[in-house]
UniProtKB/TrEMBL annotation:
Protein name in the entry: Taurine dioxygenase
Record flagged with keyword Metal-binding: yes
Presence of keyword Oxidoreductase: yes
Family: Belongs to the TfdA dioxygenase family.
A GO BP annotation: sulfur compound metabolic process
Domain annotation TauD/TfdA-like: ranges: 7-271
Sequence intervals crossing the membrane: none
Cellular component per GO, a single term: cytoplasm
UniProt keyword list: Dioxygenase, Iron, Metal-binding, Oxidoreductase
Length: 286
C-alpha cells in the first residue's frame, strides 16, 4: 500500500499506478489489502494503468479472479485456447481485433461485464493508442432538461452481425444457457452504477440501435447527440499500448476505442469480470 505511486492520466479519468507487482496477486496468498485498494482506484478513476507487469496467461486469469467471477472471453467468439477460454485475443492484424469503434463490452447481453482486465502483449512503435471516455462525465455535462427527458428511457442494443460467428464457431456461453443467436436487448439510457450509485449514459455508437418509445427519426437524433457528448476528445483518457501494461477498467462507466494504424502490430488480451443487469436511475429492476 505505502509503495503505491499514483499519477493522474487526466483531470477527470484514469490513473497510472506504479509500485505494485500484479504477479503477486496471481499467487496462492494474494494481498487482500492491495486488491481492495486497486478496486477502490477503479471505482474512483475508471481506468487504472499498471505498467511493466510480467504475467503469463494463467497469471492474467488469476489476477482477474481477484476482482470477481470471470466470464468466458466472449459470448460469441472462442477463447484464446481450450486451456484459457476466459481470454479474448485482440490482434490488430485481423479485423476482429482492431476494435476501432467506440463501444463498451457485451452490451448486447442481458448482463454485461463489470470490469475488464487488459494486458498488452505486443505494441509495436506507432501502433494506435487506446482511448477511454467516461459515461458519467458525459451525463454530468448534459443540461437538466435533457437529463429529465432521458431519465426513464430505454435503448435497444443489437449486433446481428455477430450471428455469423455463432454459426461459424458453434453456440457460445454467457451467464447460463447457450448463446445460439444474438437477440435484441434493451437497457436503461441512464444507468446507475451498482457500487458507487453514480449516474452515467449507457449507450454507444456500436450496439445501440434505437430508443424504446421514440420513432426512428427522433431516436436517431437523440442518440447522435448523446454519442457526440460521450466521445468528446477533451474528456478522453489516452494510453499508449506499451508491452507489459495491465489495465483495470470499469466497463459500467466507460466507453473505449482502439485506434488502428495500418502496418502497426498490437496484441491485447482481455479477461472480463462478470456484471449485473443494468438498472436505471431509481435503481429498480427493469
Amino acid at each position: 500500500m505505502t509503495s503505491f505511486v499514483l499519477t493522474p492520466l487526466t483531470a477527470t479519468l484514469g490513473v497510472r499506478v506504479t509500485g505494485v507487482d500484479m504477479a503477486a496477486l496471481a499467487g496462492p496468498d494474494p494481498h487482500g489489502e492491495t486488491v481492495a485498494a486497486l478496486r477502490d482506484l477503479v471505482l474512483r478513476h475508471k481506468v487504472v494503468l499498471l505498467p511493466d507487469q510480467v504475467l503469463d496467461a494463467d497469471g492474467h486469469v488469476a489476477v482477474a479472479r481477484r476482482f470477481g467471477d470471470v466470464t468466458p472471453g466472449s459470448a460469441v467468439f472462442p477463447g484464446m485456447d481450450p486451456a484459457h477460454p476466459e481470454i479474448r485475443v485482440f490482434d490488430s492484424r485481423r479485423w476482429l481485433g482492431r476494435q476501432d469503434m467506440w463501444h463498451t463490452d457485451m452490451p448486447y447481453m442481458p448482463t454485461p461485464t463489470s470490469l475488464s482486465v487488459l494486458y498488452v502483449r505486443i505494441g509495436s512503435p506507432g501502433s494506435g493508442p487506446l482511448r477511454w471516455a467516461s459515461t458519467e462525465a458525459a451525463y454530468d455535462r448534459l443540461d437538466e432538461r435533457t437529463r429529465r427527458r432521458i431519465r426513464d428511457l430505454r435503448a435497444v442494443h443489437h449486433t446481428p452481425d455477430l450471428d455469423r460467428f455463432v454459426r461459424a464457431f458453434g453456440p457460445g456461453e454467457w451467464d447460463g444457457p447457450p448463446v445460439t443467436e444474438v437477440r435484441p436487448v434493451d437497457h436503461p439510457v441512464v444507468r446507475r452504477h451498482p457500487e458507487t450509485g453514480r449516474l452515467g449514459l449507457y449507450v454507444n455508437p456500436w450496439s445501440t440501435r434505437s430508443v424504446v418509445g421514440l420513432d426512428a427519426r427522433a431516436g436517431t437524433r437523440l442518440l447522435e447527440r448523446l454519442f457526440s457528448v460521450l466521445t468528446a476528445p477533451a474528456y478522453q483518457c489516452v494510453v499508449s499500448p506499451e508491452p507489459g501494461s495491465l489495465l483495470l477498467t470499469d466497463t459500467r462507466a466507460t466507453l473505449h476505442h482502439a485506434d488502428h494504424v495500418d502496418g502497426a502490430l498490437r496484441i491485447v488480451h482481455r479477461v472480463s469480470v462478470a456484471g449485473t443487469r443494468p438498472v436505471g436511475p431509481d435503481g429498480g429492476a427493469p
